[in-house]
Write a structure and sequence with these properties.
Structural class of chain A: mainly alpha
Order of helices and strands of chain A: HHHHHHHHHHH
Helix content of chain A: 55-70%
Oligomer: homodimer
Number of strands of chain A: 0
Number of helices of chain A: 11
Largest interface: A-B, 56 and 56 residues
Radius of gyration of chain A: 22 Å
DNA sequence: ACCTGAACACCGTTCAAGT
DNA sequence: ACCTGAACACCGTTCAAGT
């Protein structure tokens, strides 16, 4: 009953939104934001650029769908943690790592109106705030603050990833920034000069979590 | 001694980086991000697109310079306030309003590596934290958290401005979001549904300041 | 219904040629 | 030194024509 082995000219699976989106994610991951073009995508899918438009309305929908797919994967699984604070940290770190793996997504998230992907994050943060017994009147502001902070870091991460593609490691990069900062005019930048040294022992993820904790402290200190 | 009145063919001021940047800001403000093209800019400056490249290396530098100009204007003047908290609030609101007036800048700031414009914000936030007597080891994280939060809100504001250019007012827009949220699946989005009503009495600026206060509370609660 | 790929209307950027 | 504007190498998107 089995069909015979065919020549190497493997038959092409039919085009589908799913295949298009996952090819887009691959392209974004390997060649970066500017590498995602309809022509490159079409070549990868062994078709013409026009074909893609049958399944997707345009480039911005495509970028949105790619982001959505990655966020969904990052948010897979239930929220768990010894405390609600831990659950928020786990959620935030999950997103942080996803953005680290897919830097193009940081820029995309930061410029996406609080639509589908981030709404799920908002919801899950909110539930943990309810568990923390944050008063109802304060829940919205608390959840928004956490979300906006996460989005801000996401944008910065994306910007950094874009700016030091010069083959520098993150440590080398931070080192060079630290040097620049410590050479700033002491009259204009006393504070920045003062904290420059701290950059050399800087860990992005630890720093990110430090901000989350600061906000969580602010949220609970009010009660 | 005065030169005679000339024909209406007014003599063109020579091109300069300054004139180019201010024409770019004007174009961005009136036609939006996608309206800034070298051809449109050249027409406005009564020259050819190539001329611009003599004064500016390319589009990304131009966008950076435009952002820099607006931020500089927004940050003009000293930090003042009855308390360091007030000074931080004033600083943050100044930026918020500038972004509100120039929505394209939100996207730009969110994707700018912490370079020149935001470094000045970082510095000024930091000085207020010193005034608050935040322990030195905590200053960097505290300043970064405030800055990242501001950048996150900036990005969201820009995204919102882009998405509801359909001639809806902000209130109408919030109303429609509130309706969407309150119709979400109660099993999947209990929290979001629950806070949906709050959107109708939502004031972006008040909400923004609420987040700043939350973070400031977190910063001072640690001491 | 779905795919093809040439064609359209743009871009940013370069560069020989001018003043 | 500074400006001009045609030309190059791309884009996203459309659409008649095919299967």
């Amino acid at each position: 009953m089995a069909t015979r082995a065919r020549r190497t000219e493997r038959r092409q699976e039919p085009l589908s939104r799913e295949r298009i989106v996952s090819a887009a994610v691959e392209l974004l991951d390997t060649v970066g934001e500017s590498g995602l073009t309809f022509r490159a995508l079409a070549e990868r899918l062994a078709t013409g650029p026009g074909a893609i438009y049958w399944h997707v309305t345009g480039k911005s929908e495509l970028l949105g769908a790619a982001t959505d797919a990655v966020v969904t994967e990052a948010l897979a699984g239930e929220d768990t943690g010894a405390t609600p604070q831990d659950a928020v940290r786990a959620l935030a770190v999950g997103l942080f790592d996803a953005i680290d793996d897919h830097p193009w997504m940081g820029a995309q998230l930061a410029r996406t109106p609080a639509g589908s992907p981030m709404l799920r994050v908002f919801e899950r943060i909110g539930r943990q705030l309810q568990a923390l017994e944050v008063p109802e009147a304060a829940q919205f502001t608390a959840a928004s603050t956490l979300l906006n902070y996460i989005l801000g870091v996401a944008g910065q991460n994306a910007a950094n990833a874009r700016s030091h593609h010069t083959g520098m490691s993150r440590t080398e990069f931070l080192d060079s920034v630290a040097t620049t900062w410590s050479e700033l005019d002491p009259d204009q930048y006393p504070f920045t000069r003062n904290v420059a040294g701290r950059l050399r022992e800087h860990d992005d993820r630890v720093e990110f979590l430090g901000g989350i904790d600061l906000i969580l402290t602010g949220i609970t200190a009010r009660q």
